[in-house]
């Protein structure tokens, strides 16, 4: 249930720590951080892209997407994306809305 709680829409009138912007970002980051080292490498990103799109996009296109994503998000030039860099890259994204599902009672 705790995992699903992160996808509840945020209610401005009530604070819920599990579905806050930061918790939603942590959850998304952990999906990409496959080796749990607090960084997303190009290889981890590529592996997740493979899981998401499979054979619908060529290997070269996936590699290009992974390379470009790391290059754009990596501010300290260590060829990996830290949680802080991940948050900064998604700074203008409406994470609260995009990572919300309305559950019917």
Structure, briefly:
This protein has six helices and two strands; from the N terminus they run H-H-E-H-H-E-H-H. By secondary structure, it is mainly α. A two-stranded antiparallel sheet has the order 1-2.
From the structure above, extract its key features.
105 residues; mainly alpha; two-stranded antiparallel ribbon; 6% strand
- Strand content is 5-15%
**Cα-to-Cα separation, first versus last residue:** 15 Å
Largest sheet: 2 strands, antiparallel
Low-confidence stretches: none
Order of helices and strands: HHEHHEHH
Q: Which class do the helix and strand fractions yield?
A: mainly alpha
Global shape: globular
Oligomer: single chain
Helical content band: 40-55%
Mean pLDDT: 84
Alpha-carbon Rg, integer: 15 Å
Main β-sheet, spatial strand arrangement = 1-2
The number of helical elements comes to 6
Strands, count: 2
Structure description:
This protein has 105 residues and is mainly alpha-helical. Helix content is 51%, strand content 6%. It contains six helices and two strands. A two-stranded antiparallel sheet has the order 1-2. The longest helix is centred in the middle third of the chain and has 15 residues. The chain is globular. The relative contact order is 0.19. The mean pLDDT is 84.
